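2024-03-11 09:14:02 INFO receiving multi-entity request
2024-03-11 09:14:02 INFO entity count = two
2024-03-11 09:14:03 INFO echoing inputs for audit
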Amino acid sequence: MFMLPSTALTALGLIAGALTSFSFALQAWRSWRTKSVKDVSGGMYVVFSAGVLLWLTYGLLRHDVALIVWNALTLVLVALILMLKFRYQQRSAAK
Amino acid sequence: MFMLPSTALTALGLIAGALTSFSFALQAWRSWRTKSVKDVSGGMYVVFSAGVLLWLTYGLLRHDVALIVWNALTLVLVALILMLKFRYQQRSAAK
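2024-03-11 09:21:47 INFO inference complete, emitting structure
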């Protein structure tokens, strides 16, 4: 069957992870800019963080560099979104 | 170094994926219920979809069942969120 050379496979994983991780920066930026987070599901980001933590563990155990690097970065961005969600939700509740 | 048996490793990947995939169902449910998507970043979901498609390809080339199954399911849920974003955004623009 068709096999990519391992450097090409690693490159594919790195590009895939760059996109999925970077995407959360767009949500974080929007929430930061608008200071409005009402439509963003907090539950989604809590469950997603738990999942990303397990993906990171999975990547470490499989020695999969792409999984390790991108899940670590995603975890940081997702924690930032959760922090913004919590902060701006409190503010609008106080109004 | 510490190695998990491969069935335990597969189970870990399946639980990780169940959490990260299922989390998007929570966002889809919230958007469907509230019919409000203003705070949800459309750019995030466009970039994220492209990334998930590449992760799926990566999983297929690495014969990694957990990556294949969960990225396929995530893609469906993320497409649903994008559809809701597009639909409800149009509606509020028309008001």
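2024-03-11 09:21:48 INFO post-check: The helical segments of chain A are 6-34, 42-62, 65-94.
2024-03-11 09:21:48 INFO post-check: Residues 59 and 65 of chain A are 7 Å apart (CA to CA).
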